[in-house]
Amino acid sequence: MTRHLPTIALGALLALAALSIVFSVRPGPEPTLSERAGALARELRCPDCQGLSVADSPTSSAREIRRQIDELLATGGSDQAVRNHFVARYGDWILLAPRSPLPWLVPLAFVIAGIAGMVAWLAGRTRPPPAASPLTAEERRGLREEAEALDA
Amino acid sequence: MIPTIGHASIVIGLGLTTYAVVAFVLAAGGRDERLAASGRRAVIGSFVAALVGCVAMVISLLTHDFSVLYVAENNATTTPAFISAISLWAALEGSILFWTLMATGWASVVLHRHRARHRLLMPWVGATLACVNLFFFAVMTWAGNPFALTAPVGAEGIGPNALLQNHPFMALHPPLLYLGYTGMAVPFAFGVAALVTKRLDEEWLRIVRRWTLVPWIFLTLGIIAGAWWSYEVLGWGGYWAWDPVENAALLPWLTATAFVHSAMVAERRGGLRIWASALVIATFTLTLVGTFLTRSGVVISVHSFTQSAIGPWFLGAILLALTLSLGLLVWRLPGLIGGGRPSGLLSRESAFLLNNVLFLGLTFAVLFGTLLPLLVTATSGDTISVGAPWFNTVNAPIFVALLFLMGIGPALPWGQASWATLRDRFAVPSILGAVVVAAGLALGLRSAAVLVTLGIAVLVGAIMIGEVIRGASARARGRDEDALTATWRLATRNRRRYGGYTVHVGVLVMAIAVAISSGLATDATVTIGPGETARIGAYEIRHERLVVEPLAADARVIETRAELTYTGPQTGSLRTALRDYPNSPTAIATPAVRTSFGEDLYVTLLASDPSTQAVTLHLFVNPLVVWIWIGGVIVGIGSTFAIWPERRRVAVAAAQPQRAPSVSPVEGA
Amino acid sequence: MRHLRWLLIPLVVLPLGLLLLSGFGRDPREIASPILGRPAPEWSLTTLDGKALGTDALAGRPYVVNFWASWCIPACVDEHPVLAAAHERYGDEVTIVGVLYQDDPGAAESFLARYGNAGYAHAVDERGALAIDYGVTGPPETFFVDADGIVRAKQFGPLTDALLADRMASILNVAER
Domains along chain A? Predict the structure, then answer.
């Protein structure tokens, strides 16, 4: 039984992977207006807070922004239109995550470079140092003579 | 009188520390023991000076001595005594004084404990620590004097920052954090000493193991206490916002954790000397960078104070410390290269190395995200934000990978692992993990983050249990002990390993709690009048009455309080309020949190209508939050267990009865 | 080549130092305003006196919009006389309008009673929609709009006489400067 355990484990993991792919690829239900509003509120920065999102902030400006999000979505605006509405007023600063893809990739590149460096370093170390070649008879004689000279 | 004593003690501390630096450097050069001893005494003297300064400040706060500017800005006649006392670390100048107390304390303890050993290293350790303390005394003398006086002396003070008065954790979080921060100077000092004296082998790593873990424990508990305090006080229902000051505390913690792990490799297998030295330098530098970010006014944050004069001082210190220590590292580089036994790509060493790469990846990501807005503004003039959504998305995969590594790393042998061993050890745990994920999917869980975290947590937990069972059963069989005794004896004789397991268990608990509390939390904003009820999750909340009155403890504060009752998995009454402090423009929310092992009911008062007596509430049900704090406590217990001194084996062996060896005549030659 | 490794030090220290240094002297709360050079938002609100006021009444002349609050101490207190002097000096060509930011009208009235009412109108931005349209992050912030309705200048933080004169210059006609 224990011999087959690894195969069972592998089978279970593969089945799991398949299930997850099926679930993630299958289109979920359309997000409701309030779900979209909540998601957008989490993306926007509260203007007079210290870095909180509009969703988390109790200030009246956050309240008004949430009200405006609801209004814009109710009149048929897209998510991007809502973002553009506030970026036109505050600039990119109002978005809690940068728009450009570059900042997202930089840490990933760092980690990949680190792993590559680590593998290279480990591979370099697994080669054992070259075995010392045995002394020839001539070298041995030479050494003995030198040692005797020192003892004198 | 008292302020004069306080100021004098700071100047005396400055003098003593300067003397200590000179004495230690001369002692190191001339191998002079008496100079080193006198330097040691000077350091202890500087600790006494800092202590006198702190006591003087606390007395000034308790007696509401408004002739001292710091007291006038952070205290009022109505401030309760407890709050007055802990206002020592409420604002800039006082917290630097408190910091200096801790820094001189660490230096005194380290130098005293090793006074008879490591004669080559200790003078340089002393010199480095004294230099660090010199910086802080200098800042207090010239850039931020805690005992600066005001004239004319007002009859009333401004009072402490409203946010800092609401919760007893204000007494806990800064001291723990500062003990952690200041303690990181100790491994740094040993690293510098090793580089200067060319004692480049692993000796200094063995010495600093405990000296790194103790501040690490404080830093961990301090960060968790800060998250807990933020959760209980700030009212937005969360505990971590990737605020620059939170990041400032996290950065040195990340490199310190990486260092603790890499030191294990360096001690057992050798090598990694450059890396270990670089990590202690990075950890210490990051404590300075963290303080700089918090205090300089260069970034906005929850902790933001106004731009202060000490910003340039800290920047100078960071650049100087970095230049000198990097210079030392580069100078000794040839002697640091090499060493260490080779190991396979699949081994415990490679797991530790991957651990370091991932921790450094996190450090880089957090530092990058915190500084990117500054960089963008400096280069293009635009302003951008890097907030929680970015940090969560970028860091989550790295955390998950670390969680996975935490499980398989300790199960890998040193040197080289074979696939057969791996298959045997990981098969059952993998199956269990897969089963749990499948069960989660079947139960309706759809959040990828929650499912993956649960699966990995079960995998890691099962591996750890397997390791403990393997070890304990081997011991029980060999010594004829029962399972429990075997496990306990095994643990106490391998404190590092089993302390480490406990720490990892704590991390697991926290990971599960974080994943579920953020993935499955529900919230709602409701407005209800007196007698009406609102529903959230399985709870029903009923508005009983709205009360507006001054606080009993401090009559200048007006509290608007909603008194509610609730039923559901927990039942009872709660009060949530908005407090109007005279020195704060907006009212401060005091959320009510009802904690159970299953979930927290969290209620914040957003607004109230005095005419209708209606209240607008933000309601949360946050599952498993208390397990985050419990997990943190487990981490603290595990790490304390790991560094607890082991009983000397010699005494135990001597206590066993001597058995006469049987002698048999030897045949032959 | 051996000494190449010493380059590591300036490579690490210089960029870090320059970056952290760049933050000094700047208020991190000040954001790059996208409204500069663009048309000013349209609005119609009620003033503290109960009268209606809006951009249609302000059209045709340059105007100044100053967001303030009674709890914004000491910044709004410091710039109050500067704005009063501006109203005295430029009042014929430029309309100055105060806008309450997250404030209670009663508290605002007390502020004006205590620090002096220069005579220009103060609109009550009840929901805070105008502050959002202008991209205000906190009082005091002042916007300078020219006769064509384009926002030409912005002041983040309290005004001084010098700063005010500089900003005014951008919206006044060249001949009258």
Answer: 28-121 (1.10.8.640)
